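Consider the following input, taken from an annotated entry for MATH domain-containing protein (Arabidopsis arenosa).
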Amino acid sequence: MFLNTKRKVNLNGVILMFSTFFCAVFATIQLNPITTREKNNQVPCNTHGSRAAVINGGDTKLSVEQRFMRPRPPNAYCVRIEACSELLTTSPSVEKYETRPFSVGGFNWTFFLQPSGNKTNLGTWISAYVTIDPSGLVGENREVYADLKFLVYSKAYDQYLTSIDTEMRRFHQFRTTWGTPNFIRHFDFNAKDKEYIFDNDQCVFGVDISVYPYFNKWEVLSIDKTVYGPKSWKLKKFSTLIKDFYMSDEFSIGGKKWALKVYPNGNGTGEGNSLSLYVILSGSQTLKPYEKVYVRAKLRVLDQKQSKHLEKPILTWFNTTGESAGFDQFVSFTDLQNPAKGFIVNDTLSLQVEFEATSSTNYYSISPAQFLSTF
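Applying the prediction step yields:
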C-alpha cells in the first residue's frame, strides 16, 4: 500500500516538471496565423493611373459579406495608388477616388473608393463600390446581374484580402451603383504587420465583377388536356392469330402519332401466361432534339357483355419514337378465355386507349425582352 502511494507521488512530480518545461519553451515561440511567402519588391498590379472625382453619393446600405485571403489577383480591374497614406488615410482625405472606365461582360464600369466612406462604433472604414455606365442599359440589356468581390493587397501575406458580396446585384437605370461601405477599417489598413501600405507608401485595390449573361434559348412545355374520344381496335378471329405481335392503325393525339401494340401470347414476364398491351409513339415521326412527350392515358380490354372493362392507367414520358408503354401482364389467359368476363365475343377481342393529357415542347432562340413579352 505504501509503495503504490509513493509511485503515484513520484509520477505526479514528473508530470509537473515536464509541463513547466514545455510551457516555458512554447512561451518563446511567436505564432503567425497565416503562412507567408518570401517577400519581394515586386508590385502585384501595374495599371494605368486613376483620376480623382467629386463624389455623387454612394450607397451606404450594409451588404452581407464574407472575407478571406486569397493569392489570385482581381479579374476585372486593379489600381495601384502611390502616396497612399496621403490620399486615403490623411485627415481630411479625398472624398472619392474613381478609376477610368473599364469593360466587363460587354458593359463599361468604374471602380471607386471612399477613403472615409463610413463611420461606425468600430472606427472609420474605406468603402468600395462599382458603377455601371447607364448608357449601356438599353434595349435587351435593360438590367444586369453581377457578383462582386472587392480586394486589397497585403504584402505581408502576399495575398489579397477579399470581401465577397454574397448577394447577386441587379444593376439598372435606377440603381447603377453597388458596393460595400465597410470594406476595410483605417485601423486595419494602417496595421504595420499586414503591410497594406508598402514600398514607399503604395497600396493596391481591385475588384472582381462576374456578369451573368442573359439566356437566349428557351423552351415551352405545354400540357394538352383536350378531351379526346377513346380509340378502339378490334382483333377479329383472335384464336387464329399466329404472329408474336400486332399493331393497330396509327391515330393522332396531341399533335403526335400513336398506335396500339398487342402480344396475343404475351411478352416479357407475360409470355405464355398473359396478353400484353402497349401504346406506342409511332416511329413514322421525328421528335425534336431532346424532346420528351408526357402521356397520361388508360388502356382497356373491353368487356363486350357487361361493360365491366379491365382498365389500367399509364403515366409516363416518351423520349424516342418507337418507344412503348404498357403492361406485360395486362390480362391473364385464364380471365381472357373466361366467357363470363366477356373479353372475347365471337372470337373478337376489343381493345381501347383513352388519352387524358399529352405534352408538346417548342424551342426558341429569342431575346429576354421578347420572351417576357409573350406572357
